[in-house]
Amino acid sequence: MKTIIVPVDFSEQSEYALKVAASLAKQYDAQILALHMLELNEAMISSSEGFHPEQTVFLLKLAEKRISDFLDKAYLKGVKKVTPIIKHFKVFGEVNDVVERHGADLIVMGSHGSDGLREIFVGSNAEKVVRHSEVPVLVIKDEMEDFKVDTFVFACAFKEESLGAFHKAWSFAEKLNADFHMVYINTPGDNFLSDQDAQEKISNFMEKAGTDHEVNIFNDYSVEKGVLNFSEKINADVIGIPTHGRKGLSHFFMGSIGEDIANHSKIPVITFKI
Description:
Blueprint: E1 3-7, H1 12-28, E2 31-37, H2 42-45, H3 53-70, E3 82-87, H4 94-102, E4 106-110, H5 125-132, E5 137-140, E6 151-155, H6 163-175, E7 179-186, H7 195-209, E8 215-219, H8 223-233, E9 238-243, H9 257-264, E10 269-273
Parallel strand pairs: 1-2, 1-4, 2-3, 4-5, 6-7, 6-9, 7-8, 9-10
Antiparallel strand pairs: 5-10
Helix pairs in contact: 8-9
Organism: Lentiprolixibacter aurantiacus
Protein name: Universal stress protein
Family: Belongs to the universal stress protein A family.
């Protein structure tokens, strides 16, 4: 891991993300790119009407001052390099431009609360970054000191479409030197599988993945509860889930399960694009 991007909006949550990024950067000798997306419309930048150019310059200088003050933190001491980047438009596809230009490995994103409020992902900046990002996005909701990933849980439906996300998650866990735990959640009702059927489904997936990595079968009343309860049971540091990118987290497993996991989890969640 060489480069970590942290979107910064000067909120308490973005500072939580910055602290986690600092911990990871120190552990892996990585640099941090602090990305602030300044919400300027076209008129502010180019139009001769409305806002004058000097007003645009003023707003840019103000943003530069704010991000400089925001990055003046003791916990950033010892980080290889911290570089502020200001983008003129709040267009979340631009995150990938920064990722590609700097060869970033990870985005660490702050998000609101840990009580399942829908604004955490639905319509939020965090969801928009997740939808556009080609690299893993680690979502942080609470302050965490000396963040380190020793135990990594990856949950998926064990369908062929998740093979790419699985390989990305496994590779990422190896970069973090973390123990990698895969879990299949077996639920009652129409989705219930016998042990034999569940093992067959998992075996087919792992054969296509080209590995015989052990998979845990965990029974619970819902997929969301199963993922969270299993992760808490083994004291996981991170929960990994696949996402369809622009289709959002709502296509993970079925319905809004992915969003529910991200919203309700007290454990940081990291997404991998399918």
